[in-house]
Amino acid sequence: VQLQASGGGLVQAGGSLTLSCAVSKYTFGTYNMGWFRQAPGKGREFLGAIAYSGLTTYADSVEGRFTISRDIAKNTMYLQMSSLQPEDTAVYLCAAALGVPTVPDYWGQGTLVTVSS
Questions:
Q1: How far from 58 is each of 12, 66, 88, CA to CA, in Å?
Q2: What DSSP element (H or E) covers 33?
Q3: Beta pairing, strands 56-58 & 44-50
């Protein structure tokens, strides 16, 4: 399974940004897909997931601000982020798990999101 996150950049506080995660073909039909982030000096934080069924779940810290979706035809998963704050600054990573999405089997390279105040 190959994953590649993209779409990061610099955004002002209060702004929005959408990240993409390109995945290998047929991944969505087998794996539960997740988004994580790692802020400077902190551990990796689970943000949310979209199951192979299409069901989405979110961490309390981002529910209502972040939305996960996928385009099966394009083999791409998305993370729409709104009302961004400086504390959202982090490297964002996508991942794939055969089991629970909080314990991925495969990781993609991350994309940096910087939120300026």
A1: 23, 8, 15
A2: strand 32-38
A3: antiparallel
Report mean pLDDT in 10-residue bins for the chain, 117 residues: 97 98 93 97 97 95 96 97 97 97 96 97
DSSP conformation class of 110: P
Q: Where are the beta strands (DSSP E) in 7-89?
A: 9-12, 17-23, 32-38, 44-50, 56-58, 66-71, 76-81
Decide if 48 contacts 34 (C-beta within 8 A). yes
Residues with Cβ within 8 Å of residue 31, at least 6 apart in sequence: 1, 52, 96, 97, 98, 105, 106
